[in-house]
Design goal:
Oligomer: single chain
Mean pLDDT: 89
Strand order of the largest sheet: 5-6-7-8-9
Shape: globular
Radius of gyration: 18 Å
CATH class of the largest domain: Alpha Beta
Distance between the termini: 31 Å
CATH topology of the largest domain: Beta-lactamase
Low-confidence stretches: none
CATH architecture of the largest domain: 3-Layer(aba) Sandwich
Structural class: alpha+beta
């Protein structure tokens, strides 16, 4: 599911944060998340609530991409979609929950909502750039069927309830799906120029993308998407909840390695959602 895994982890965190909300204020040092590169003093101030929002301010010196210089950004102040944050959050989860991510996925979500295809044996962690030895925190890859992804979306749409039972803590769904980073900060002017002035309207919450409605629009299609949120993975993996329509949309792109032209990016998917919304009449 590519980065949809991050949104699923966001769901899993709820049970354990509800038991002890103080965990959100535990620092990366408290949680033992120090990597192969020691934390800079400024980085040590990052707390558990920062990585899920992509705001830890912790960057690897030799990582690929355009991350800021290590130690140059205060935790909580700048959004940078940085996989260190999400992988370290996975390590933190296992320490907080005292169980593995895949075990928690089975006991805390798959069984309670009746997933039909979940197989813990198919799940596997992937070490990040093992030749470069960049990080001790692996990627917790997840492999779920489309119909089981739809169950997760339905659970979110029902605010964590499944057949009258609170599978997720009450009010937890609001936390990861609150807009903390507006779309203008996710897609700054440099990216707007790159996309020819057309950018995604998705801002960011905590491991979920949150719709940031365009200002001044009169389109009914935009209006009903307001308050929607989505899990998003590379090449076309999505779980989207549109509360105003009581609608869950799941999009899965299989065999992407064999057919790379089938990739469905966020902007294309945004158009698909508008077409789905328009068809409701």
């Amino acid at each position: 599911m590519a980065s949809v895994r991050k949104s699923v982890l966001g769901m899993l965190f709820g049970k354990y944060i509800a038991k002890d909300p103080r965990l959100l204020h535990a620092t990366v040092k408290d949680l033992g998340l120090e990597d192969l590169e020691p934390f800079e003093p400024i980085e040590e101030r990052a707390t558990l609530q920062d990585p899920p929002m992509a705001r830890s301010g912790i960057y690897l010196r030799d990582a690929d991409g355009d991350s800021p210089r290590k130690g140059s950004v205060a935790p909580g102040t700048q959004f940078v979609y940085n996989n260190w944050d999400f992988n370290a959050a996975g390590t933190a989860f296992e320490r907080v929950a005292a169980k593995g991510i895949y075990e928690a996925l089975e006991t805390d979500l798959a069984r309670p909502i009746g997933m039909q295809d979940y197989d813990i044996a198919k799940q596997k962690k992937i070490q990040v750039a093992p030749k470069k030895k960049l990080s001790v925190h692996p990627e917790y890859a997840m492999y779920l069927s489309t119909r089981d992804m739809a169950r997760l979306g339905f659970l979110m749409a029902r605010y964590g309830q499944w057949k009258g039972v609170d599978v997720l803590p009450k009010n937890w769904v609001e936390y990861p799906t609150t807009l903390y980073t507006p779309a203008s900060d996710v897609w700054p002017r440099a990216l707007q120029r790159e996309f020819g002035g057309t950018v995604s309207r998705w801002g960011y919450g905590a491991m979920w993308w949150v719709w940031d409605a365009p200002i001044g629009t009169t389109s009914a299609n935009w209006t009903v998407i307001t308050a929607s949120y989505t899990a998003s993975g590379t090449d076309g993996q999505y779980i989207t909840v549109i509360p105003s329509l009581d609608l869950v949309v799941v999009h899965k792109n299989a065999n992407i390695d064999q057919e790379p032209n089938r990739s469905v990016g966020l902007l294309a998917y945004q158009t698909i959602l508008q077409m789905v919304v328009a068809s409701r009449r």
